[in-house]
Amino acid sequence: MMARMSLPSPDKQVYPLHVLLVLINELEEEGVPATEVLRGSGLRKSGLRDPGTRVSVNQILTVFRNAMAVSGSSTLALRTGSRLHITACGIYGYALLSSPTHRHAADFVIRYDRTLHPLTEMRYRLDQGIASWTFEPTVETDTGTELYRFVVELKLSAMRSVLEDLHNPGFRLLKARVAYPPPAHARAYREYLGCEIEFGQGTNTLCYEAAMTEEPMARADPLTHETMRRFCDQALLQLNEKSSLADTVRILLLEQPDQFVHLGAVATTLGMTERTLRRKLLAEETSFRQLLTEARTRLAISYLRSTNLTNEAIALRLGYSDAANFSHAFTRWTGVPPNRYRRPMANNQ
């Protein structure tokens, strides 16, 4: 299952500081002042001490780009992720830690991860004795960019840290796959992930033994979990409340792509006429057609990179009559045919 997300406007400040604080601490240890990392983000170091400070996706990306530019270390993202333990994740982390079972914890991540980590979509799978987490950056689809790799490295390392915290001592990953070719610092992946790494696989995945998900949760506490979950519900509600109408439409298109192909279906779900929906979307400088194309593009790329679905099956899921029409549309959206995204999947399970 994939945590299909639609983010609020990238300029809306609705996310906590957790990741940025750890990243800035890492850079300060390199001798890079926080002011250099925060340049152009609209954030001040004094504001980082306030737990109520919230940041936007654009601010996060500005800090990430600054970090990549000023850091003297090629392993910055891997190193930062290794320090993002559960206790560095605030209420979200304590809710995970107190989950009744590992399955509850996985379901919790699928539902609430976007309240803390808005830059990736998550998939969880149990199959033939293997548990796996697959994720895809939401802010960059080109696997050849430094930003794509930075987001992936950060997530890989952070996921390992969190999984180690959730499981009993002795937990280890079996394998990691990434979508891009080996970078110059490829050997460092084994140091930070502790497992075999496969590059150029067209997907970003961490695998471990499913038997570990059957172990008891060492710190399970139903009352604490329920209390923390309610706080996370409020955070999720805040994201949705601060979303525009366009964001709401995106959520519908991504969560139920086979039911909302037509404008009329979306308008009915939202309790308005097609004309009103068109007018309100126009006021937000977008259109239903544009949002539908955006959703289909993201879904198609995810299907091609993360599943073995045929072009025919993907076409049907996205509302196309046949694979040829889907292929033509995909090439128009991305500039390359679907198989260009699918080729690296050959070695995937």
Question: What would you note in describing this structure?
Answer:
This protein is an alpha+beta fold. 50% of the residues lie in helices and 8% in strands. It has helices at residues 18-29, 34-38, 57-70, 76-82, 90-97, 102-112, 146-166, 187-193, 222-241, 245-255, 263-269, 274-283, 288-306, 311-317, 323-334, 338-342; strands at 120-127, 130-137, 175-177, 196-198, 205-209. β1 and β2 form a beta hairpin. The protein is globular and about 55 Å long. The two termini are 16 Å apart. The relative contact order is 0.11.
Task: Write a concise synopsis of the structure shown.
With 349 residues, the chain is an alpha+beta fold. It contains 16 helices and 5 strands.
What is the N-to-C order of secondary-structure elements (H for helix, E for strand)? HHHHHHEEHEHEEHHHHHHHH
Structural class: alpha+beta
What form results from the Cα inertia axes? Answer: globular
CA-CA gap between termini: 16 Å
* Count of separate DSSP helical elements: 16
Largest sheet: 5 strands, mixed
Task: State Rg.
Answer: 20 Å
Strand arrangement within the widest β-sheet reads 1-2-5-3-4
Determine the oligomeric state from the structure: single chain
Strand content: 5-15%
Percent of residues in helices: 40-55%
> Whole-number average pLDDT?
87
Low-confidence stretches: 1-6, 343-349
**Strands, total number:** 5
